[in-house]
Model the fold of this input.
Amino acid sequence: MINILPKQLFLFDPLSFFFLFVILIVSLPSAIYSFGYLKGEYSPRKIILAQVLLIAFILSMVLVVTVGNVFVFLVFWEIMSLVSYFLVVFDTKHEKSVQAGMIYIVMTHIGTAFLVAAFMIMHKYANSFDFLAIKNACLIMPLETKNIIFLFLLIGFGTKAGIVPLHIWLPYAHPQAPSHISSIMSGVMIKTAVYGVIRFVIFMLGASSCWWGILVLFLAIVTCLVGIIYALMERDIKRLLAYSSVENIGIILLGVGLAMFFQSKNMPYLAVFSLIAGMYHLINHAIFKGLLFLCAGSVYKATETRDIEKLGGLIKNMPQTAVYCLVGAMAISALPPLNGFVSEWLTLQAFFLGVLNVSGGVKLFLGICASLLALTSGLAAACFVKAFGITFLGKPRSHHAKEAKEVPLSMQIGMIFLSILCIVFGLAAVKIINLLSKIAGCATGIDIAGMSFSFNNITLTAQMGNGIYLSAPLLMLSFVALGIIGFIVYRISARPKVVIYNTWDCGYYKLDSRNEYTATAFSKPFRIAFSFFLMPYRKTQKIRESFYHVKSFAYETHTTPIFKKYIYDPALNLVFKSAKFMKRIQPGSIHLYLSYIFVTTLLLIMFVKHF
Amino acid sequence: MEKLLIVILQLGLFIVISPVLSGLITKIKNNIRMRRGQSVFQPYYNLVKLFSKDEVISDTASWIFKVTPIIVFSSTLTAALLVPVFIFSAPLHNMGDFLCLVFIFALGRFFLALAALDTASSFGGMGSSREMFISSLTEPVLCLVIFAVSFQAGSTDLSALGRMHVVSISSIIAALALFLVAIAETSRVPVDNQETHLELTMIHEAMVLEYSGRRLALIEMASYIKQMILFFLIAQIVFPIALPGFGSFTQILFWSLQYLARIAIIAIVIALVEVTVAKMRLFRVADFLGFGFVLGVIALVCAMLGV
Done:
């Protein structure tokens, strides 16, 4: 008899608290933001519906990370998916939303199916659905079973997290929801999948073979690169952010994968160190991605477009939003001394320590992974120069952008809060790392007494490296002090006369916004360098008045969505084909259906009798 | 107190000496081309001139354009503080390590690229896009170089580099990879051309096209200093000399002299490369840095094999 009723409904351990904290820290500002954002956008009744859904969404996520029973976990996991589905299709004005919702719900259920399978196998061994009982049962589980469970969990949670090639739904679903929901979905919801990986793979199964970690690392680095390359190509600001979430999930999973690898190699310090790096990036990403989505929402609210080719010059009309967005863009590009920098540094350092301490060919694999992570961070910087530069700088490219107005204070509060957090999480790295080490210790079951991660109150260090230091506050201090010197040098020089004049136009008469560089042009070098993967193609069309006179010329450039074209479209075709095939046994005759039921019952009875 | 002195000395050294490197490279290039060329000290004259000139700022520029020179200047000087020059460990080596250096350079570049977009000039956009393209391709190479060089010392701390005194196969290959990165990062010939005045072919110069006067001077200073940092790193990897601990004034003078001699050699090599190769198309840069990546991997493998 299946024992569904939980003995232990909730599990409050440091890991749960950490995720609870991550959820609340993004959800609260987003909720405050939602009042200003929804006003005027929808009818009052719909706003009430939106707020009810928002509360249900936040509550379901909170419960997902705090329950202590697999069965209840699945229930809330499903509620979370469904509520977020309703939020994705909330904007019924657009037909796109319905399509996006469809892709989302199908993908998320494929994931859930794998999770159910994994949980069923777990239950077979533990005879209970409680986390702790399963954890104990995992100790005696044969390795082959563990391998299967791991793969199922990876596919299941990977779908939610958006690892490549299961990321396909993410860039459709996240941008379609109202912006504060996008911010929660990208900032937090996909992190519940990382919670799943940490809780079920590291905490329960306890990374048993070293190929688990390697597999996760491989998928993670591919996810990073694919995510950021697609983000670079994007001109819809919210889709760009969604792709960048794919990238950042990759970076988080690099930390988690390293932790799994080190755990299996029995290197406790490195396992804890890598998990800290992963979790640090997790909370950082929640903060800055939440912030950036709120900024994107403000831009959308002010200009009614998400296409950055139609924006520009917003820094003049929306000065505050520009500042918040700049902070977010700097943080996500891993610029010192903000938070993204600290966590990327930690991840790179975890790789370096891995290269130093493991033996064999894995060393080289880790080294190359690290360099690809560096490539990712370079591309991310380019991507956010594009996103911020084209949106906020230069001249407005459309009437809407020219007429944009700063958003009200109620919407700014959330953004201010998250911007400050971006800075605080960079400067207070030591404090945070000491807290995270306890959580990582709890998750991996490693005793962290005697491990140190900081040199003094402001400097991070790694015990195993031969003196590796990083101090974000000192860097900040140095920037400021030297900046002041630079300013003094600037001020004391002879003639402080500044003339405001046109931009250099090669003698052409007055440049306008049509002469500006566009986002598509900005990403052109990348499109060509990565053409083996993006496969860009052009569509040109001449509109002729007569044979000799071309009246106008239409030019489009596209990239080939290879995952859709080579994986999902064939799969979808297969589904349709098999459905067509199955249609033959459903001719509509009730007699035939009754006989099906009869035969099935017979077979079941035989099955039960024999086995 | 001693530390503060070293900090000031180091900053002073970078600010005072770095322009002469550019002057030296230009001079050598001109001499090889059978021209007399400008004085080695021309960059100083240029800076003085720029500091005393009026500025023209575009009417579309926002505050980003105005603060960028200061951010670029201060971040580059911060990077200069991380490098060990007079003694084996830099005065503020607790502040960050070799990897951190990469991120600090990224900060200045990020703002320069934004400032280039800020003026709504298509040259600026072009420069910004290309600079970000090239720099994002240099980052994986840099990372591999750092891993290879730091592998033997077991630490990415730059004082490990300061203590280095043996040259190995791995470090030579790593230095070669770093050399390619330095060419790309300091906008030297096969990748970019500092001398060109055709807006369509320039990269770094196109980004700073709208700058003039004192702000341009600050940016120029920053790029001289960045160049000197990169040259120093290459020099310390190929001609490693273990730097001493705290010493007397004469000792510091001695070390700074031998230090200048080493980076002068790198500058000469750069100048030779610049006059002997032709600038390549932008999209070939990916191959160029791809070669750097391969070198980086080889350097890392060599480091792992202990050669």
In short: The CA atoms of residues 187 and 193 of chain B lie 6 Å apart.
